[in-house]
């Protein structure tokens, strides 16, 4: 609390009035949706069955031991991000697009797992994958209740497979909030291959990224500091099955964002029946 207050004073003294307004506005906005959540939730999930089946994560690399975020835990030790507006918006959007069956989501770099927990409350299947085992060992946030049932450790820069009742499963929504910049550039290909393989045709991959540096305990945590055009160019060249889309959300309606350098990866996996339009 004191840290946020001192930052606000520093911004005001340096003339960054717009930045202070943005931060205040966003906190109020998120607070309103958090207050509405208990009232909206019962009606939204009414009539939905509890998700059936057992989720599991298969991998030969259960912890990202070489990751700077495991060596010097920061976000994984304190973050537990969510945004009720985003949760409710995507729930309504994907239910319109996929119908009334049980939807499935996965959050990469899930930290405390609150985004997963909120989708579970809406009776989705939910999985969170976290590279560090810090939260698991400390049973922090949602790991105390959801460890190894919905929240799993795993190195997303190595092949892994999520299963439902022992069979490979796919997801209608995969998220990664300020995670991709933590990946070493040579490892990005495997991360996107994991994403693409786990996406249901027509499903969405939504991520926020930042171009800024983040040094913690003398270690640079942000290993790929790309601009949004660089990210989009990389995906276009290497993963044509992912098409860039506008999901209809404003910057402050995503779970995480950077007002100074806003950057979102918004992709939908092309359906198998998709064919490019032929010009006559």
Summary of the model, kept short:
The chain is α/β, with parallel strands linked by helices and 280 residues long. The protein is 37% helix and 20% strand. It has a 7-stranded mixed sheet with strand order 4-3-2-7-8-12-11. A 3-stranded antiparallel sheet has the order 1-5-6, with no helix packed on it.
Secondary structure layout:
Blueprint: H1 2-13, H2 17-45, E1 55-59, H3 68-71, H4 75-78, H5 84-98, E2 104-108, H6 114-121, E3 125-130, H7 134-138, H8 143-146, E4 151-153, E5 160-164, E6 167-168, E7 171-177, H9 188-198, E8 199-208, E9 215-216, E10 219-220, H10 228-238, E11 242-244, E12 264-269
Parallel strand pairs: 2-3, 2-7, 3-4, 7-8
Antiparallel strand pairs: 1-5, 5-6, 8-12, 9-10, 11-12
Q: Which features does this protein show?
A:
globular, 280 residues, 37% helix, seven-stranded mixed β-sheet, alpha/beta, three-stranded antiparallel β-sheet, 10 helices
Question: What do you see in this structure?
Answer:
With 280 residues, the protein is of the alpha/beta class. The protein has helices at residues 2-13, 17-45, 68-71, 75-78, 84-98, 114-121, 134-138, 143-146, 188-198, 228-238; strands at 55-59, 104-108, 125-130, 151-153, 160-164, 167-168, 171-177, 199-208, 215-216, 219-220, 242-244, 264-269. It is globular and about 55 Å long.
Give the structural class: alpha/beta
Query: Poorly predicted ranges (pLDDT <50, ≥5 residues)?
Result: 273-280
Number of strands: 12
Q: How big is the Rg? A: 19 Å
Q: Please count the helical segments.
A: 10
Side by side, the strands of the main sheet go: 4-3-2-7-8-12-11
Distance between the termini: 61 Å
Helix content: 25-40%
**Shape category:** globular
């Amino acid at each position: 609390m004191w840290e946020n207050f001192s930052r606000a004073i520093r911004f005001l003294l340096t003339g960054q009035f717009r930045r202070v307004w943005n931060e205040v506005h966003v906190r109020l906005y998120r607070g309103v949706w958090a207050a509405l959540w208990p009232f909206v939730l019962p009606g939204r999930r009414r009539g939905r069955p509890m998700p059936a089946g057992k989720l599991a994560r298969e991998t030969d690399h259960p912890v990202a031991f070489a990751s700077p975020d495991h060596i010097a835990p920061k976000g994984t030790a304190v973050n537990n991000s969510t945004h009720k507006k985003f949760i409710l918006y995507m729930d309504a959007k994907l239910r319109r697009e996929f119908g009334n069956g049980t939807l499935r989501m996965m959050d990469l770099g899930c930290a405390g797992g609150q985004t997963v927990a909120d989708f579970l409350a809406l009776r989705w299947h939910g999985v969170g994958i976290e590279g560090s085992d810090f939260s698991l060992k400390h049973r922090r946030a949602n790991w105390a209740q959801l460890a190894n049932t919905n929240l799993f450790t795993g190195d997303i820069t190595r092949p892994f497979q999520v299963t439902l009742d022992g069979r490979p499963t796919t997801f209608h929504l995969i998220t990664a909030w300020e995670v991709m910049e933590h990946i070493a550039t040579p490892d990005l290909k495997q991360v996107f291959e994991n994403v693409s393989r786990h996406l249901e045709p027509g499903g969405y991959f939504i991520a926020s990224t930042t171009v800024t540096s983040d040094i913690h305990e003398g270690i640079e945590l942000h290993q790929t500091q790309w601009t949004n055009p660089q990210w989009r160019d990389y995906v276009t060249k290497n993963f044509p099955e992912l098409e860039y889309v506008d999901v209809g959300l404003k910057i402050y309606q995503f779970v995480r964002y950077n007002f100074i350098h806003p950057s979102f990866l918004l992709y939908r996996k092309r359906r198998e029946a998709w064919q490019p339009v032929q010009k006559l």
